[in-house]
Design brief:
The protein has 298 residues and is an alpha+beta fold. The protein is built from six helices and ten strands, in the order βββαααββββαααβββ.
């Protein structure tokens, strides 16, 4: 390709072989990366939020004491909690390998290279892998004819985070990613405490609504269990298991992050292959102009 310069055109060509013995070259590098902010302030776990509410500058005097005790106890004692920040983000790394060989004779010169790149991103489900190759052959067939062959190509596979990051980061860190026996016992006990609070006369915050009343028997939803009383260890945790519409410590009834990763896949594949044959012919001749001067051209 060319780039317009002050004194003409600058030609840029790919690397080619040189005459002489074979030359081998190998290069490799590795690097690591991580997210630039650690311990994002708003991504606290359930226990951290309980401590924040109890020790921070919050006026809780207008909150019903029964509801306050119910919520704080649930935040403080939720078992096997996994930080969403720690689960989503990790250290990334990248490795690259490049191998090339060149050589030839006075009339034939060749160069070939192979490359490999593997990048594991800092976000779960993020990565990129690429293979690339190149070969150039130049041959002088005689003093008037030259020929060449140029080939290059690559194949890339990109893994993309299967869900919008803003939705993943809005998930509450109040539970494990997959249920344990302890977390199953906890949500069932939390539902019983909700019922006891309702029986005591408290009617706010939808306390009378069972955690799973809108899901029980609804087979249109692709859940491991449609009731918190049918949960098994290893089932995907969903937000509604911990309460809905503010009647527990759950939020909007959103599906858990594991279900989003387990049931979704996003990727991009691309490839390129080029092959060019080049010929150069040199011819000699002469012309005689009207003023009887001879000129040569090649």
């Amino acid at each position: 390709m060319g780039s317009l310069g002050a004194n003409g055109v600058i030609l840029i060509t790919t690397k080619k072989g040189k005459s002489g013995k074979l030359n081998f070259s190998y290069n490799a590098y590795t690097s690591t990366s991580r997210k630039y902010v650690k311990d994002i302030e708003m991504l606290k776990t359930a226990g951290e939020w309980a401590n924040e509410l109890q020790t921070g500058d919050y006026d809780l005097s207008l909150t019903d004491p029964g509801l306050l005790e119910y919520r704080l106890d649930a935040y403080a004692n939720a078992p096997d909690v996994v930080s969403m920040e720690d689960w989503l983000f990790k250290s990334g790394n990248s490795t690259s390998h490049d191998f090339s060989v060149s050589g030839g004779s006075e009339n034939i010169k060749a160069f070939a290279s192979l490359g490999y790149l593997n990048t594991d991103g800092i976000v779960k489900g993020q990565g990129y892998e690429r293979y690339n190759g190149r070969m150039n052959i130049d041959a002088t067939l005689n003093d008037k004819l030259k020929a060449g062959l140029s080939m290059n190509g690559f194949y890339g596979n990109q893994d993309i985070v299967p869900w919008e990051m803003r939705d993943l980061l809005r998930s509450y860190s109040i539970s494990p990613i997959y249920h344990t026996q302890a977390s199953i016992d906890f949500v069932q006990q939390l539902d019983a405490k909700r019922q006891a609070l309702f029986d005591s006369g408290f009617t706010g915050n939808n306390i009378g609504q069972s955690f799973d009343s809108n899901y029980r028997g609804d087979l249109s939803q692709n859940y491991d269990a449609h009731s918190i009383y049918d949960l098994q260890p290893g089932d995907v945790v969903n937000d509604w298991h911990y309460g809905r519409n503010q009647n527990g410590i759950g939020g909007t009834g959103d599906a858990g992050v594991a279900s989003k990763f387990d049931n979704s896949q996003r990727y991009k594949k691309n490839a390129l292959w080029e092959c060019k044959f080049l010929f150069r012919i040199r011819a000699y001749g002469s012309l005689k102009s009207e003023n009887h001067f001879w000129s040569r051209f090649t």
